[in-house]
Amino acid sequence: MIKFSNVSLIYPNSTTTVLENLNLEIAEGEMVLVIGPTGSGKSSLLRLINGLVPHHTGGILAGDVSVDGHSTQLVKPGAMAHLIGIVGQNPANGFVADTVEEELAFGMETLNLPPDVMRKRVEEVLDLLSLSPLRDRAIATLSGGEQQRVAIGSALVAHPKVLVLDEPTSALDPIAAEEVLSILHRLVHDLSLTVVIAEHKLERVIQFADRIVHINGVGMAQVGTPEEILMHSPIAPPIVHLARALGLKEIGVSVREMRRMTAEIREKDYVSTDAVHSHVGDPIIQVRNLSVTYDGKNALNSVSTTISSNEIVAIMGRNGAGKSSLLKSLAGISDLSSGAVVVSGTNPQNLHGKMRRTSIGFIPQEPSDLLYGQSVQIECEQADKDNQIPSGTTAQILQQLVPGISPTTHPRDLSEGQRLGLALSIVLSSNPAVLILDEPTRGLDYQAKKELTTILIEFARATNKCVVLATHDVELVAELATRVLFLADGDIVADGSTLDVLLSSPAFAPQVSKVMSPQPWLKVSDVVSAIEAHQ
Amino acid sequence: MKKLSLHPLTWWIWAIGLAIAVIRFDSTVFTIGCVGAVAVVVFANRDNAPWGKSFNWTLKVSAWILLVRTIIGVLIGVPIPGTTLFTLPILPLPSWMPGIRIGGSVTAERLTSALSEGILICAIIVIFGAAASLTSPHRLLRVLPVYIYEFGISIVIATSVLPQLVTSVSRIRQAQKLRGQSLRGFASWRRVAIPLLEESLARSLDLAAAMDSRGYGVSKKRSRYRPIKWRAADSAVVFSALIVMGLS
Lengths: 535, 248
What we know:
Helix content of chain A: 25-40%
CATH class of the largest domain in chain A: Alpha Beta
Order of helices and strands of chain B: HHHEEEHHHHH
Structural class of chain A: alpha/beta
Number of helices of chain B: 8
Mean pLDDT of chain B: 82
Low-confidence stretches of chain A: none
CATH superfamily of the largest domain in chain A: P-loop containing nucleotide triphosphate hydrolases
Radius of gyration of chain A: 24 Å
Helix content of chain B: 55-70%
Number of domains of chain B: 2
Number of strands of chain A: 19
CATH topology of the largest domain in chain A: Rossmann fold
Largest sheet of chain A: 6 strands, mixed
Largest interface: A-B, 64 and 51 residues
Strand order of the largest sheet of chain B: 1-3-2
Distance between the termini of chain B: 32 Å
Mean pLDDT of chain A: 89
Oligomer: heterodimer
Strand order of the largest sheet of chain A: 6-7-8-3-9-10
Shape of chain B: globular
CATH architecture of the largest domain in chain A: 3-Layer(aba) Sandwich
Strand content of chain B: 5-15%
Number of domains of chain A: 2
């Protein structure tokens, strides 16, 4: 269906090739997963398929990409619209209409399909993706998962043979991600649709993939079955790390396979090591009966909690459960309807300038909102000046967090992980007591996530510091958090140690605990240390 | 009250009619009345969507323009004789710039002429801002003929990305506040402008790519899923503007 022959790609003003001599054939009805570190060219590979690269982005393409016999060199992306449906990284940016139904029809209108055909196909897709209850809704009012489904639907109405998706689950909570992926799985099996998908969170998609394309960032690419590629790849989901740590001969890519392979290990009698009660210091953040209202709707209903120093608190819950509202109230930037928030003895709404910097550090969902300098160096110097610290301090923190960033680079040209690192070092340079992060792992690869985990654990260890983060990333929470607050519809429905909260909810359980249940282990290191203690 | 669902071109034609009337009338009282009426129509009819909210910004921006325009009009320009309100020191200018002076006595006549010109400019901005906030840019795109493809794509991008900027501005300013930066003065806007510009560029490219890959502009003919019809209400709105225009 899709054929890459000797494809090399280089962008103008760039010294490295994105792809070098890639040969790849994807058969009809195959689901192919593209993996690689951030900035390695996954998106470029996807956009080569319908010719957006190079027709839309520029760049020099050698070799040939053809889909169903049509070479992308000869036809423009628009002429492939009936053949390829493409869903971008941020579907909200690609919507052309106001309501769900009109959005679904747009692609067919441009293809000049007769109205009766359109009606039929719209109904079909509404049913297929369970969108019927949403048909008249304004797209702007939909949740992330719903928007993702509309975007997939509007690609499917043209009856394409190939569906291309760039990080379809990165912004979704685990349940919404599950919904989207199972729909894709069904399309592949029922309609023999060819699906190409790029994703960082391998733990979510790996079980559905037939083959993997692994791009290593310097132009080379490997193609093979998930087992072949993941056996040696540095990019691997926790389940594979578990297999490696246990020294299994084969690796399994689904929980079911791994449970079969590890039955013996699970059944042994382990000395229940009492969970090491991590030291918790004095209270830093106090929230009392906090309610927040947006557009007449309650985002938080009378929430109360206390967060103490040395804690790393993960706030979890579905999209729209009130996570961001809670973070914004802690940071003092949203108006409270009732109740009170006290951070280090003061109301965060009254903090300004230097006082604010030294008490609360906040990393927003888009770390680039914080950045305005023309280069990394200017950003770092500005932070030094703001905080009246010796010049070079911020640059030094950055060097520790993410080594090897050239100081003359423009922040825009950094990779997702590097940009987060820069924002983080600017925030850390003022040495705040509380660090708040909103969805820090969107678009981060495993390596960057691991570094982030180390930094945050280090930060929370110091006296009178704590970290609060909102995230959908279950695996990150398992590695990082000491405590989990679970929000649903504006209420705290669970509050306890990471182990208790994650194990009690099957949807939010990390892979390792799913494999090792009923043993109370969340991460690979838990398993390893329990086995060592047993021997 | 149920909001009128009008043809996307209606409010634009209405705005053009009003703008012509305002210019031809050239009466400050009429202009202010017209702006008031437009504002009432917008607040009663706008959608609860990003473009609907953009009208507040149109008002703010035009108030700024009026202020700056008046100050400059009073400071610089040809002196108009009349009742002197107060006198400013005159800035000496080289001899090759005769007839222009900076400072000097400010007369009531000069002040009113500067004000009324400023009000006229602002009224035009407000009228077109009203049309933009009353019409969904997406619906506007759907009625534009395909053969103005490039133009169509730019219109959609301009009209759909600009209102979203309003949302982005408040988000970025919030983030800057969290970095402990002051939100006053020119420098604070420079700090907002850079992330804003980047984001809107990225957004525009995304939208253009999405439209391209869905085949926009490939077929010169385009079918309609639900044709947008011209109704009596549309004619009524357009007619009202034409009458005002005819009176002028």
